[in-house]
């Protein structure tokens, strides 16, 4: 079995956007790509069959923190890893759990060894170390596993951001050492991605990009954005990081964001995205469509029997009407959550596919500038 490879196929003539092909032992991924978030081994309200047929997902995420706590490593290992446990046979990326652990501000304690925290489920105490997180992700079995890092708040003071970055880099060294000294667990190759940190400080971000690039990993990630900073600042830091990360490796922007965020960051050279927004917003009656944003709760949709979005190649988006979906969500019917979540994910995958096609055609920048105002419309 072979390590992840990245083939850069096309560069847009009017921006830094690019189209590529990632190859893993569980299949290929056409970039730019959006990755649905399957925190506990499932994308909320969406079956694996729908992820394949309607959403057309090429890779999904799992989360180390949540899967470690439940169902636990013994269950996953006896199943033969997450792919066999949840029946998803395409690539999987596992987040290290760092963001989840650090969001437990009231119960966690950071030290050189790692982070102690209390489970949100039963209050039990746990320790995550860089070595332990590598072992956990080996057992979960993701094709791409993430380094354990500290994600400082967006408004962090420079002194804290610098100390945090230095800790993240020391932890990265330990992650790399542990990763390189342990074998792949289930007969296919796993790949470690380091994470760029440095808060909103360009010198720290540059330092982090250079340090991470020196590890010569198969891909690199940018973390610590979309954590409360103004949108223009997010774009500025993302663009800066892309300029200082290797062009021959895939770049993954973690946890971002809206459809227009994704398009803007594609234009800066980002290849991979994930975010809970499409499913979370869908469960709360916000639909992203090819014509704009719909709050399906609004009374104006009560008698609208037209399909949710005829602009998508999605059976669910074309089969069910806006009026029916509104009725389901108003009635708190579980089917409504499935329809809304599946539709939003299908839209996100449609969007990155369109972006890829326009990169290849050479007119991505003009297409992006024309479509973003449409997508932002409130219908």
TrEMBL record:
Residues that bind substrate: 95-99, 149, 197, 224
Keyword Transferase: yes
Molecular-function GO terms, alphabetical: glycosyltransferase activity
Active site residues of this protein: 95 (proton acceptor), 274 (nucleophile)
Root EC class: transferase
Protein keywords: Glycosyltransferase, Queuosine biosynthesis, Transferase, tRNA processing
Catalysis: reaction(s): 7-aminomethyl-7-carbaguanine + guanosine(34) in tRNA = 7-aminomethyl-7-carbaguanosine(34) in tRNA + guanine
E.C. code: 2.4.2.29
tRNA-guanine(15) transglycosylase-like domain boundaries: 15-372
Biological pathway: tRNA modification; tRNA-queuosine biosynthesis
Region (RNA binding): 255-261, 279-283
SUPFAM superfamilies to which the protein is assigned, alphabetical: tRNA-guanine transglycosylase
The UniProt record lists the keyword Magnesium: no
Stated role: Catalyzes the base-exchange of a guanine (G) residue with the queuine precursor 7-aminomethyl-7-deazaguanine (PreQ1) at position 34 (anticodon wobble position) in tRNAs with GU(N) anticodons (tRNA-Asp, -Asn, -His and -Tyr). Catalysis occurs through a double-displacement mechanism. The nucleophile active site attacks the C1' of nucleotide 34 to detach the guanine base from the RNA, forming a covalent enzyme-RNA intermediate. The proton acceptor active site deprotonates the incoming PreQ1, allowing a nucleophilic attack on the C1' of the ribose to form the product.
Family to which the UniProt record says this protein belongs: Belongs to the queuine tRNA-ribosyltransferase family.
Subunit (UniProt): Homodimer. Within each dimer, one monomer is responsible for RNA recognition and catalysis, while the other monomer binds to the replacement base PreQ1.
Protein name: Queuine tRNA-ribosyltransferase
Species of the source: Terrimonas rubra
Gene from which the chain derives: tgt
């Amino acid at each position: 079995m072979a390590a992840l490879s990245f083939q850069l196929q096309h560069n847009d003539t009017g921006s830094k956007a690019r189209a590529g092909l990632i190859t893993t032992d569980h299949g290929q991924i056409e970039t730019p790509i959006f990755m649905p978030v399957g925190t506990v081994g499932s994308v909320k309200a969406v079956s694996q069959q729908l992820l394949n047929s309607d959403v057309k997902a090429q890779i999904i995420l799992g989360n180390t923190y949540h899967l470690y706590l439940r169902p636990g490593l013994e269950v996953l290992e006896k199943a033969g890893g997450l792919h066999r446990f949840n029946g998803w046979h395409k690539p999987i990326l596992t987040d290290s759990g760092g963001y989840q652990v650090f969001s437990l501000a009231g119960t966690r304690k950071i030290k050189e060894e790692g982070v102690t925290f209390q489970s949100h489920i039963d209050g039990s105490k746990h320790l995550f170390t860089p070595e332990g997180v590598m072992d956990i992700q080996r057992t979960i079995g993701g094709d791409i596993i993430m380094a354990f890092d500290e994600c400082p708040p967006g408004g962090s003071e420079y002194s804290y951001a610098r100390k945090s970055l230095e800790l993240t880099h020391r932890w990265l060294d330990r992650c790399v050492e542990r990763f390189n000294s342990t074998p792949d667990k289930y007969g296919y190759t796993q790949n470690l991605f380091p994470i760029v940190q440095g808060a909103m400080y360009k010198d720290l971000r540059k330092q982090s990009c250079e340090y991470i690039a020196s590890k010569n990993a198969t891909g690199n990630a940018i973390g610590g954005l979309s954590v409360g900073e103004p949108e223009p600042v997010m774009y500025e830091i993302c663009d800066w990081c892309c300029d200082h990360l290797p062009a021959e490796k895939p770049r993954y922007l973690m946890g971002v964001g809206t459809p227009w965020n994704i398009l803007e960051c594609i234009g800066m050279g980002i290849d991979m995205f994930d975010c809970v927004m499409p499913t979370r917003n869908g469960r709360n009656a916000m639909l992203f469509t090819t014509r704009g944003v719909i709050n399906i709760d609004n009374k104006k949709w009560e008698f609208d029997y037209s399909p949710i979005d005829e602009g998508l190649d999605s059976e669910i988006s074309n089969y069910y009407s806006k009026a029916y979906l509104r009725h389901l969500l108003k009635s708190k019917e579980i089917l409504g959550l499935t329809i809304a979540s599946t539709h939003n994910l299908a839209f996100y995958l449609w969007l990155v596919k369109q972006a890829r096609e326009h990169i290849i055609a050479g007119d991505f920048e003009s297409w992006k500038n024309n479509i973003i105002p449409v997508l932002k419309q409130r219908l």
